[in-house]
Design goal:
The structure holds two protein chains of two kinds. By secondary structure, chain A is of the alpha+beta class. Helix content of chain A is 31%, strand content 15%. Chain B has an eight-stranded antiparallel beta sheet. A seven-stranded mixed beta sheet of chain B has the order 3-5-1-12-9-10-11. In chain B, strand 10, helix 7 and strand 11 form a beta-alpha-beta unit. Classes of the chains: A alpha+beta, B alpha+beta. The structure holds FE2/S2 (inorganic) cluster (2 copies). Chain B: One of its GO terms (molecular function) is oxidoreductase activity.
Amino acid sequence: MPRLTKDETHPVRFTLNGRPVSVRAYPRALLTDALRHEIGATGTHVGCEHGVCGACTVQVDGEPARACLMLARQAEGCEIRTVEGLNNKDALSPLQEAFREHFALQCGFCTAGILMSLDALFSPQPDAEEDAIREALSGHLCRCTGYAPIVQAALAARNRIKGGPIDA
Amino acid sequence: MKDTVSEKLLGQSALRVEDPALLSGRGRYIDDLPVAAGTLALAFVRSPHGHAAIRSVDTAEAAQATGVVAVITGEDVAARTRSMTVGVKADVECWPMAVDRVRYVGEPVAMIVATDRYLAEDAADLVVVDYAMLDAVVEPVAALAADAPVLHTSLGSNLINERRFRYGDPEAEFDAAPHRIGIDVTYPRSACTPIETYGVIASYEPGEDAYDVTSNFQGPFSIHAVVARSLNVPGNRLRLRTPPDSGGSFGIKQGVFPYMILAAIAARIAGAPVKWIEDRLEHLSASVSATNRQTRIEAAVTADGRITALDWDQIEDCGAHLRAPEPATLYRMHGNMTGAYDIPNMAIRNRVVLTNKTPTGLNRGFGGPQIYFALERLMDTIARHLGLDRLEVIRRNLIPAEAFPYRTASGALYDSGDYVAALDRAVEEGGLAELYARRDKARAAGRRYGIGFACVVEPSVSNMGYITTVLTPEERAKAGPKNGAQATSTISIDPLGSVTVKVASVPQGQGHRTVLAQVVADKFGLPIDTVRVLADVDTMRDAWSIASGNYASRFAPAVAGATEIAAARLRDKLAKVAASQLNIAPDDVIFEAGRIGAAGNSDNSLSFARAAATAHWSPGTLPEGVDQTMRETVYWTPPELEAPTAEDGVNSSLCHGFIFDFCGIEIDPETAEPRIDRYVTMHDCGRILHPAMVDGQVRGGFAQAVGAAFLEEYAYGPDGSFRSGTLADYLLPTVMEVPDPVILHHETLSPFTPLGAKGVGEGNCMSTPVCIANAVADALAPEGDAPEIVLPVTAAKLAPLIFGDEPAPQEPVSETKTEDTAGGRKLTGEGRAVVQASREDVWRMLLDPATLDAIIPGSHGVRKVGETRFEADVTLGVGPVRGRYKADIDLSDLDPPNAVTLSGQAVGALGTGGGQGRITLTDTEDGTEIAYRYEAQIGGKVASVGGRLLDGAAKVVIGEFFRALARHCGGGASSGALARLRSLVDRVIKGGRS
Ligand code: FES
Ligand code: FES
């Protein structure tokens, strides 16, 4: 890895939702800031910047990760997927659709992170049990919904996804 | 005009128009909005102390730092603003930034404007503030003591307001009643803290002396006046805007307003727009919280459990400043202090005190949790005391259905309700009998299981005049009456005939836009997706008034109501336009499926768009008496919201919903962990406009109440240090802690609102904490007196009640202890080490700066500044929280070469530390034994975010010091001695020898 100097920006290249992107970032810049403020992908939210709330969850090489606990630099060469990548063109994915139908969001601030965690759960495990769903959700704080509708939506989405590929 | 098509959408759970964007990452929250080129970042320097005088603020180094455009102090702010309005008559000032004294941890002391947030925060660490520590007071009762430290010297004490109220003849009732039953209640501090923090974008145009502020503020817009006054400009020079989306608020984002003032001033001084996004530590320590309150409540009770009088004594803790609209938390419930009960006599004593904690403000349930916790714990106590069934005591006191509209003792006019019917239905449909059976079974098996009840009247649509109840009738007469609750709504139809609705309701996730689309689509017979709704605010362009905003559960009753009225007016107009074109009477016009036509003759109709467009394209063809304005703005205020009377009666809210909750709670026999087995909540919120959203509000409020009941507390040390600065310290409930409650509804329409709806968002924050507490009390003590229940009910609090106090250990198990004292979070410990050097050598080393430099962990240099004084630069850290400190070290009580006392003070951007240690040296066979005993205190940011880790960290740091000393002395030691030394060092690190 090239040596980075603290007062200079350096290029960071990764794939964002399937498209190659390149940003210049200071070595200490957080991935959340690079995504939101350099690239303009503001769908990923920031609720605590210390790894507890889960709002900033994105997928790094298919695994859910807290973007607020990553430096932008650490994304070099990775495949990053964010909420903006969930849609199927202009249409909602089955998971997003289920969230809408079950009123599983109110302010929507926690939602992107939750969707990314559930998507990462269902991708390899389309028939995840309710316990696994709750486990995945337990890393997220939602202050609006009381969680029950989120669990309902996840269960409904699972049943729909089971029938076909997740991105269908 | 026939009303054949309306009410089709209303009452259904339409899909939310907000959701496609929010689910796809296309929301537009404050931090997502585009900003003007050249916008700078703002960061704050905040007080690490609960109470201290500011001797000086040195900004020189910060001003030189990379990227810094301006460094602004409290004096700079004060020079350009006026003190913020305080809601009571008191000789006190309220500045958004500390000037000569800090009064709570997190209080802004200076701000940095820089080219980016990282650089601004770097520079914030370089501002040097010299504080003179003052004693702090954090408990409201202690704050009233004659010798308590006084926060605002101009006030002379910490009591900023006191009022006594008397309704009916309470003294006579208390004299006559066979029972006088009372309890003391401590309600702690918590907040419905949203996941999105505060944000402000501000700019200043000197040519017009005008500020432009965008913030995720939630209202009430009466605060616009407070901000404009403080900025010293007329209202039209403060343009206040809100972003289209907001990441939750629950009252909290009312408290962003001091930061609007600060950001506006920063923009003015920097000569460029500035933006500030609060971080989580700032939010938890210094945004806003609910009040904590100490209450004594007593009831005069007849033998059969009827309450004839209440006597309240409330001490409200509003934190360090009485910030607008406080003390509103104390007065919002003033009209409904008798709750759901028919109690004609009441005395109230209200005191508002200031303490070294964050100023308080709006918070979901606003004032309700505090009073209902007291009232419903009292109901429970009365039943226990009289040996009566708890539900029976509740039932006997409920306001009867035929009494509505019902005027309470303190002046509220309850609009509608059938409390007994709602309660009976809940008992039946919620399965209370089954719950009793579960309790019996659990108890028979020796388990601790309890059932709790709570009855609550949920007020909504606040009377903007209620807060003036804090003034005496004479003061009110002088100031002029205040009352009402204006809601605004504008509907316009464009030249293509499509409908736009504009309200000033500033939703934070409640789906306002969907519900208004339903209301208007119904009225016009249009499909819901043809109506567009905007709910964010621009004070320069929109219709708004002081009551605008999203609080006091006013949306469904007031804003949706105002929209209904505006839609009806436009519909009347359109009916006339269409009638003249269709050659029928306006009364025979119907609106259906996008067309306006003759009732009973579907052929005779024209499209809605065509009728609406007439006014734009050919106003000359409109019928007599119909004007061409296709835009209707309604300002609605209910006449029932009158100003407080000369007798202090106040109708504090327009609507009064009803909630009856019961729940079963089991306490784990081994861990004392309480767990909700079943929770039933019955609501009467008048007409339900959108069932799924109503249930969403109930569930959301319930989850927050579960947090308040079991987890959440803003923890302060006795010195005012703040101990819950991360979401790992201030615990919010997760999916694992929140059960799904059984939600039931009983609808009695409000006669006072256009749609018959009442508010619903806050009720469970009022009912659930006390319902849970009552169940816990029942689990702990099925009969007789119950122990005092103080929230949050944690296993740690329940364990001693169940298992008795933990026996004191026979011998101290560990050498390190943590204790909360008036001096802060205190760590004490002791240890020993044996080193291969003579006493004289060790003594010399301890007094030698070079040696100290080598052995102090993280030292960057030690300077001798006096015979026995040293200065050091050290880097210390707990986990990732690492900071540089300046330390002053003093040696005293020197007894060479036997003993010395070492005291140190360290100050850094991350906080403060201080300690004292006595070191004694004694000869041993092959060297010197060093024994030490220390006491250390830690405060500031590091205590807020690292409290959990401090004890261990202190032990390690002190251990490291002696290990280094041993290494330093041990040069040339034999290998055997080295091994011995190592084992000694190990012991030192493990806490020394007992
Ligand atoms: S913002 Fe990353 S976990 Fe909260
Ligand atoms: S929807 Fe608001 S925090 Fe989850």
